[in-house]
Amino acid sequence: MSKKTYELNWYGSFFITIQLDHEKDIEQIFKEMNEYWGGCEDRLRKYNDNITYVGLKLIAERAFYLIVQDLTSVEELRSKIKDEEGFWDIDEKQGIKIIDYYWSGLDDFGITITEVGND
């Protein structure tokens, strides 16, 4: 099975390259990344007081899950989770709904995800 390679950058505070081929990889990604997440929470609160470390982790985890399971490109991810009202809503059932103005606002949260290749 081929793997897709993604780079994730958070406010420039770190840059990580990941390779995904199935859902199981997600647990390892967050195990490795966990030490980096906590410091971002206060910076994000200026956008939304309800953002928490746990919610943030679930958002990114779900985004990667969508990439792995359903999507072939970052553009598909963008179109899938942006609704007409300017919220981005990853999964109602998981209760994750973050108010934002545009998909590009994901960059305002400090997250950029770039597909960099296939193996």
Would you mind describing this structure in some detail?
β3 (87-91) and β4 (96-99) form a beta hairpin. By secondary structure, the protein is α+β, with helices and mostly antiparallel strands. It has one domain. The chain contains five helices and five strands. The chain has a three-stranded antiparallel sheet with strand order 2-1-5. Strands 3-4 form a two-stranded antiparallel sheet.
Low-pLDDT stretches: 10-15, 30-56, 63-74, 81-109
- Strand tally is 5
Provide the number of structural domains: 1
Strand order, sheet with most strands: 2-1-5
The Rg value, from CA coordinates, equals: 14 Å
Main features:
single chain, 119 residues, alpha+beta, three-stranded antiparallel β-sheet, two-stranded antiparallel sheet, 5 strands, globular
Can you give me a brief rundown of this structure?
With 119 residues, the protein is of the alpha+beta class.
Helix-strand blueprint:
Blueprint: E1 4-10, E2 14-20, H1 25-37, H2 41-45, H3 53-70, H4 74-81, E3 87-91, E4 96-99, H5 105-108, E5 111-118
Antiparallel strand pairs: 1-2, 1-5, 3-4
